[in-house]
Amino acid sequence: MSETLKLPTFEDVAAAAARIEGHAHRTPVLRSRTADEEFGAEIFFKCENLQRMGAFKFRGAFNALAKFDERQRRAGVVAFSSGNHAQAIALAARILGMPATIVMPHDAPAAKVAATKGYGGQVVIYDRYRDDREQIGRDLAEKHGLTLIPPYDHPDVIAGQGTAAKELYEEVGPLDAFFAPMGGGGLLSGSALAARALSPQCKIYGVEPEAGNDGQQSFRSGEIVHIDTPKTIADGAQTQHLGQHTFPIIRREVDAVFTASDAQLVEAMRFFASRMKLVVEPTGCLGFAAAREMKAQLRGKRIGVLLSGGNVDVERFGALLAG
Ligand SMILES: *Cc1c(COP(=O)(O)O)cnc(C)c1O
Fold first, then answer.
1. Is the pTM of this model over 0.90?
2. Ligand 1: residues within 6 Å at CB?
């Protein structure tokens, strides 16, 4: 693995930005007077909940697929995901006119399966407890010549994810601190590449669910720590470990990794819904939830908060807020 490892750089993020232009939305940066007053600071929310298909994952997926050669395009892409990566790959493939096969567990939410099919993805279901999904993927790739694109551990995916933070710094200028959710670390590592180039003094913070702090443990120990799938409402960050590509960048560029509890995520969701009229999915609230715990240190600062996605079905959204 390590001999083939090629880590992306800011140049790759800049190239990705050119590739996705006109396909991904340049999402708005929103402000809230209430948030600024709560913190005694200036907060800039980068709204990837308003990105196409509802999350930043479209950026990395589109960038990776846009780099396929003619042969790869004809055969198509394969991805494993029950969440936002599935929809991102399916939509990007449709736009680029290539076939997409998405391998999903049998218990994936019906709405996510329907959304993936709606974007034209061919869905292959596997049994989470009985089947080996790696084997399914290898068989599909071999038999049909498909290219596998993972959700975070890939240089082109990381570079694409970094374009959101790049847009943020270009729009508002240098910041003192930046908070982003962290699952496998694709978003955080890409964001860190953008930050170091455009706002070198900015502190970069990753935030993961309290129920599964493998990233925090890895960051502190210097080794990628593996855990069981954590039980949390932050379903976009239920990863078991950081990636071979994301971890070295995070170790090098990130200042600290924090955690947020499910209760803190619900409080943040409530804030976005009631004060900013925004639907942010639980995972998308991780950055803001952690920032709220360190208001004393952030007083008087300029702070970027990345809202990573808005894909939560309305019944669940209502139930979480009511609960
Ligand atoms: C995938 C995802 C994340 C985590 O991104 P990583 O690149 O795996 O760290 C965070 N928020 C949302 C909404 C996601 O879909």
1. yes
2. 55, 57, 83-84, 151-152, 161, 181-188, 236-237, 239, 281, 283-284, 308-309
